[in-house]
Amino acid sequence: MTTILPLSGWGRYPIVDCPVNFPGSPDAARALVAQLPDSIARGNGRSYGDASLNCAATLDLKRLDRMLAFDPESGTMTCEGGVMLSDLIDAMLPRGWFPPVTPGTKFVTIGGMIASDVHGKNHHGSGSFCDSVAWLDLDTGEGRARRCSATENTDLFAATCGGMGLTGIIVRAAFRMLRVETSMVRQKTIHAPDLAAAMALFEQTSDWTYAVAWIDCLARGSALGRSVLLLGEHATLAELDPERRSTPLHRPKRRVKRVPVDFPGFALSRPIVKLFNRSYYAAQRAGERLVDLDPYFYPLDALLDWNRIYGRGGFVQYQCVLPLATSAVGIRALLEEVSAAGNASFLAVLKRMGPQSFGILSFPLEGYTLALDFPATPASLALVERLDAITAAHGGRVYLAKDACMTAERFAASYPRAPDFRAVLDRIGTRRAFSSSLSRRLEI
Amino acid sequence: MIAFPVLILGARSDIGRALARAYAARGATVILAGRGDLTDDCSDLMLRTGGNASTVAFDVTDGAPDAFFQSLGTVPGTIVLVAGLLGDQAKSAADDAAAALVMETNYTGAARYLLAGARVMQGTANACIIGISSVAGDRGRGSNYIYGSAKAGLTAFLSGLRNAHAKTGLHVMTVKPGFVRTQMTAGMKLAPPLTASPEQVADAILRAHEKHRDVLYVLGRWRLVMTIIAAIPESIFKKLSL
Hints:
The complex is a heterodimer. In chain A, 27% of the residues lie in helices and 25% in strands. Chain A is built from 13 helices and 21 strands. An 8-stranded antiparallel β-sheet of chain A has the order 16-12-14-13-19-20-18-21. In chain A, strands 5-6-10-8-9 form a 5-stranded antiparallel β-sheet. Chain B is α/β, with parallel strands linked by helices. Chain B has one domain (6-237): NAD(P)-binding Rossmann-like Domain (Rossmann fold, 3-Layer(aba) Sandwich), CATH 3.40.50. Chain B is built from 9 helices and 9 strands. In chain B, helix 1 packs parallel to helix 2, helix 1 packs across helix 7 and helix 5 runs parallel beside helix 6. The termini of chain B are far apart. Chain A binds chain B through residues 1-3, 21-22, 24, 28, 63, 65-70, 80, 87, 90-91, 94-95, and chain B through 14, 40-41, 43-44, 47-50, 181-183, 186-189. Chain B: It comes from Sphingomonas psychrolutea. Chain B: This is Short-chain dehydrogenase.
């Protein structure tokens, strides 16, 4: 049974009417995929743009959410693709296990994490999520699932990791988790007065497991790139206050708030964001302290529906990565463009990334990644187009899980392995079986 | 007080799964009863909560409730009957076998299993039987009266069972979920203010269970809607397309 629903990604731009199916079991999903000539899987809809939308058929797989097995010897979790990361953390953190790589929200599914080959604040040392995936079962619509791993169906594995759901449905996956002693993070905060200082700090602190910088992207001139670096390590038992040591894995219940209405446009006008940025920069105390894991990894998850802050028109997130050699010049050029345009971006994040992963369409690249978001206005879309040009000129690329704007030409130029991706699908004969608004726009 | 173990009759359904998770999260040992293989659901429960769960084969239409309860090897503290079949009204009206299956699933089978359950639970402290009935049983409507009449039977059965056991310590609760977004209703146009998620239904049932409620409308608005529908004189009602 199908329902036509207006769907969008987290950015609420674009919105597309899609016939949606909600299979309740892997068998139901298998029957659907075998029968539909063209479909795309959708998890929790947290990719920002149009990756989880297909106006021919969209499969909502949130009901395929069973955790199947956990091996404490190797730390390997086996679960269905629709399992939410938040549920996984709720189940496993009390036993001392944490996902090896986590994006900035825990409201994503494991299937979505694999399809986007998500990265976290530890990419420079731990790689992306798919580096921890032992195997996955992919339903390509032939009535059975294919086991894909580093030793089995290897090319399909490499195409699926970061493949934006275009190879089929990730029914099941097994991945290694990380042992942690506590539910706290030892956080070190360092202020960087400008971009050069921030990048120098990233290079000096690469032995920290987690590192991320928040940038005030409205700062100009000599303060361009003014940022706050947040470094982190999972706190050890010995680092906890004595009174916390008896319950080291306890997580305080977080007060979750909702955004009740779509904000009006002026809420994010330049003066207001400028004020916010200035006070945020000043409010971050330098030095080391222990913080709870949730606010450290998922600051925005405490504010449900935060995408409504950008108003009814939605927003676009722009995240690109530039190779190490061009990062210093390129990130500066991007920030100058943003700062000159005056488009307010609350959330600007800079991160050092480690080497490229095996995923054919995986985003990460050794260098620096910058993430910004803007309300989806004509002026912002024009700005994004200019940012795309700067990214391309510096040999970088845009994250498909966040993109809603890139052109097919830019995609072809910045993802040079796209022909290999198509070759894998041609070989198994499922080239047109899975598509999305994103894949059509980018002619993947 | 919630008495363990909790037996979920119809654990494969979306509401059944949500209920199993909610009870397990409360520390209950859960027995999943349903058709087909439930091992994955069982593993999921144990991984999510670190608690205990088991599975048992169950078909509400198999006609052998006493044997089923004997095979359990334990006496449930709580039984939640979730199994139900909406069927297709036009098909049920045209085809005797289809109508019989809807009636058997929603009423005769369900009532026989709960009777057998009530017999084995006799004397169990804090024992509770929870039956998922439907607002469709509040008044027969042209669009779903075969399903509706079977649910009306179940509602009357639960009310009688509650009355009969008021002094024995067995509590009986009737649940009328209203519209729920599940596989059963996939593809239907459901009014959002009257539609609950399976997780909402499960939470409401747990809260009502703890408070010993007799009849639960998951969304309070349904009580009002059904009161109005029940108040329409039959001479007018029969001409409405409902």
